[in-house]
Write a structure and sequence with these properties.
Blueprint: H1 3-8, H2 13-23, E1 28-30, H3 32-45, E2 50-55, H4 67-78, E3 82-87, H5 109-123, E4 132-136, H6 138-141, H7 145-153, H8 158-161, H9 165-172, H10 179-195, E5 199-203, H11 207-219, E6 226-230, H12 256-264, H13 268-278, H14 283-294, H15 299-314, H16 317-331, E7 340-344, E8 349-350, H17 351-357, H18 364-372, E9 376-378, E10 381-382, E11 389-390, E12 393-399, E13 403-409
Parallel strand pairs: 2-3, 2-5, 3-4, 5-6, 7-13
Antiparallel strand pairs: 1-6, 8-11, 9-10, 9-12, 12-13
Helix pairs in contact: 2-3, 10-11, 12-15, 12-16, 13-15, 15-16, 17-18
């Protein structure tokens, strides 16, 4: 196709829609003019573009922070393009050094297999499994062998590799960098060569690795991919990026009630970023809703709508409705319809020991802290006496806003 024509012709409505969808919420699209040309060519030829997302199965569970890039993949998938969900079973053996100040320990093949199966099952809650190409990078990395690896390594210089922030900082700080860590970005870049990728997605922390894909495709005589980086989602605290280690996350396999309540706990300010990155509502609809809130409508209405949308995506619309009702009941001091039934022996038993035995507090000291904070109720009454002993009987015990158990003490 004539390059001049592609660049200067007015963009069709379909291409403009695809470009707007790509740009929504993104941090960078590099280079935008090349991606526009790819979209125009795809429309003219009817050949879908190949869009790649690689994930190393380093942990068995996905939280909604991970779904920011998955959501973008789904949006582009719905426009008719080919989505490739790449599981880095080979690169996991190296360990991604991105953002690390020390060498990441590699996973065992057994860990990788278990995590990969869980990853894809959970990712399928966002992507359309029938239209998703699943690949494992061991397909082309294992056959490379020592000769192929040496040839691949010759395509990039140590000087360029040391421009990478984490390597540069570790070197200046006198921290060790293992030679095998240089192989990680090379192998991730080679994935793009093997898959003939047109666009690769990743978080902002993956920019170096994504650019490596462009470089290596040119080295191997291919048209280079464009790259799309997405922001890292702040967690429930609104400060740190969502992370299990920070305990500010929502796992996509969490129960509906917890998921709904956690979304409602975020700040009114953070809510709008979550709308942009997590909602499938149009930008026009989100802007209209924001205008209503600024005009005096209760921000909680918008937050409830977001909580229901996210909960319905990973559960069902009925489960989202039930979670909303459960939240209303709890906010009024009511008891959910379904709570855990626990049997404990040792009556009369101190309240701290009962909380620990019933699984409502991890330790006696944590139970004491919860009581001091006014976070423990027995049959709807706040417990203030840490020395309280309960006689044999059945009690509804509540810890915080979301933990309930019907405890039978014998």
């Amino acid at each position: 196709m004539n390059q001049e024509l592609v660049t200067n012709s007015p963009l069709s409505d379909r291409v403009q829609t695809a470009l707007a969808t790509t740009l929504r919420g993104c941090d960078e699209l590099i280079p935008q003019d090349e991606w526009t040309r790819k979209l125009v060519r795809s429309e003219a030829t009817g050949v879908p573009l190949r869009i790649k997302l690689g994930l190393d199965p380093t942990a068995p569970d996905i939280h909604i922070g991970h779904t920011v890039v998955l959501n973008k993949m789904r949006q582009l998938q719905d426009l008719g393009h080919t989505v490739i969900f790449l599981i880095g079973d080979f690169t996991s053996l190296i360990g991604d050094p991105s953002g690390r100040n020390s060498t990441r320990p590699p996973l065992t093949p057994e860990q990788i297999k278990v995590n990969a199966e869980t990853y894809y099952r959970q990712a399928s809650l966002v992507l359309d499994p029938a239209k998703t190409e699943i690949r494992y990078n061991s397909e082309w990395c294992d056959p490379l062998g020592a000769r192929g690896m040496i040839q691949l390594a010759s395509r990039y210089t140590v000087a360029r590799m040391m421009e990478r922030n984490d390597f540069h900082d570790r070197f200046k700080a006198g921290q060790s960098i293992s030679v095998h860590e240089f192989l990680y970005p090379l192998m991730q870049g080679y994935d793009s060569v093997a898959l003939k990728s047109d666009l690769e997605l990743g978080g902002t922390d993956q920019k170096f690795n994504l650019l490596m894909g462009r470089h290596l495709q040119q080295e191997y005589g291919q048209e280079p991919q464009c790259i799309l980086t997405m922001p890292l989602l702040e967690g429930l605290d609104g400060i740190e990026k969502m992370s299990k280690s920070k305990n500010n996350y929502i796992g996509i396999s969490e129960d509906a009630n917890s998921m709904f309540a956690k979304v409602l706990s975020i700040s009114d300010v953070l809510m709008w970023k979550w709308y942009t990155l997590l909602s499938f509502q149009s930008e026009a609809d989100i802007a209209a809703l924001k205008a209503e809130i600024e005009g005096g409508r209760n921000p909680k209405d918008a937050k409830v709508a977001l909580a229901k949308e996210i909960t319905a995506r990973f559960h069902s619309a009925a489960a989202a409705d039930a979670a909303e009702q459960d939240f209303i009941n709890r906010s009024k001091g009511g008891v959910p319809d379904e709570i855990a039934e626990v049997s404990v022996s040792g009556a009369p038993l101190g309240i701290g020991a009962l909380l620990k035995a019933a699984g409502l507090a991890p330790s006696g000291s944590e139970a004491s802290r919860l009581i001091d904070g006014g976070g423990v109720r027995v049959d709807s009454s706040v417990v203030s006496d840490k020395a309280l002993k309960l006689a044999a009987g059945t009690y509804v015990v509540q810890v915080g806003k979301r933990k309930f158990a019907r405890v039978t003490l014998a």
